[in-house]
């Protein structure tokens, strides 16, 4: 059997035709009973619509503005209290030095000595003649020296002073020799003036 013949066979299309007929019968019954009308009424019923407002999120909390800075008032002037400070009393023991040595006794002023007159060429008890200095002898120098001899009361010579000299080469020898002179003791010392001459002899 080919395809065309099979499609033409009415037995093959019988179930489909039956279903179509059943649907038409059902639709007609619904129209008769007003089912379609009820469906229309249901569709005509008012539809409630609700507008749902969008919930707005609250704005974020903004921190309050800082308070204005006020200049701090100057502190009230309080005068400083008067403080009386007393000097501390020193309780440390004082150290006192006790000297056992008596203070030096001032020597009584010497009795005024009357200026003794200068004795010229006064003869001594013993004398030492000055020697001719070697340097003056080598150079062939002659000289003359005037000296003062200070004689103590016991007769010894305390000092020799050169008053004049033709050459300093002779001074040391004059002082050395006249310092060894001795005189007779006297109650009061005196000054003797002597002239020493240095001459070259053959």
Q: What's the story with the biggest beta sheet?
A: 4 strands, mixed
What is the CATH superfamily of the domain at 118-198?
TonB
CATH topology of the domain at 118-198: TolA/TonB C-terminal domain
- Binned strand content: 5-15%
Globally, the shape reads rod-shaped
Question: What does the radius of gyration come to?
Answer: 82 Å
Question: Unreliable stretches, pLDDT < 50, 5 or more residues?
Answer: none
Number of helices: 5
Distance between the termini: 209 Å
The CATH class designation of the domain at 118-198 is Alpha Beta
Write the layout of secondary structure elements.
Layout: H1 3-8, H2 14-33, H3 35-44, E1 118-120, H4 134-139, E2 143-151, E3 157-165, H5 171-178, E4 190-198
Parallel strand pairs: 1-4
Antiparallel strand pairs: 2-3, 2-4
Please give a quick description of this structure.
With 202 residues, the protein is of the alpha+beta class.
What keyword list fits this structure?
202 residues, rod-shaped, 25% helix, single chain, alpha+beta, TolA/TonB C-terminal domain, 4-stranded mixed β-sheet
Molecular structure report:
Among the domains are: 31 residues; 81 residues, TonB (TolA/TonB C-terminal domain, 2-Layer Sandwich), CATH 3.30.2420.10. The chain contains 5 helices and 4 strands. Strand 2 and strand 3 form a beta hairpin.
């Amino acid at each position: 059997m080919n395809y065309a013949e099979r499609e033409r066979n009415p037995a093959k299309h019988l179930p489909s035709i039956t279903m179509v007929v059943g649907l038409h019968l059902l639709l007609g019954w619904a129209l008769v009973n007003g089912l379609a009308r009820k469906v229309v009424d249901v569709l005509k019923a008012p539809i409630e619509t609700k507008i749902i407002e969008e919930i707005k999120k609250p704005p974020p909390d903004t921190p309050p503005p800082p308070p204005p800075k006020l200049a701090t008032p100057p502190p009230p002037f309080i005068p400083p209290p008067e403080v009386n400070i007393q000097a501390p009393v020193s309780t440390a023991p004082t150290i006192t030095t006790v000297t056992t040595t008596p203070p030096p006794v001032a020597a009584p002023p010497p009795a005024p000595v009357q200026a003794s007159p200068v004795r010229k060429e006064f003869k001594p008890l013993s004398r030492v003649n000055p020697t001719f200095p070697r340097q003056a002898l080598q150079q062939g120098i002659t000289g003359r020296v005037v000296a003062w001899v200070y004689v103590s009361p016991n007769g010894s010579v305390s000092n020799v002073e050169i008053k004049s000299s033709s050459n300093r080469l002779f001074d040391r020898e004059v002082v050395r020799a006249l310092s060894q002179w001795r005189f007779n003791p006297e109650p009061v010392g005196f000054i003797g003036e002597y002239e020493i001459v240095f001459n070259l002899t053959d």
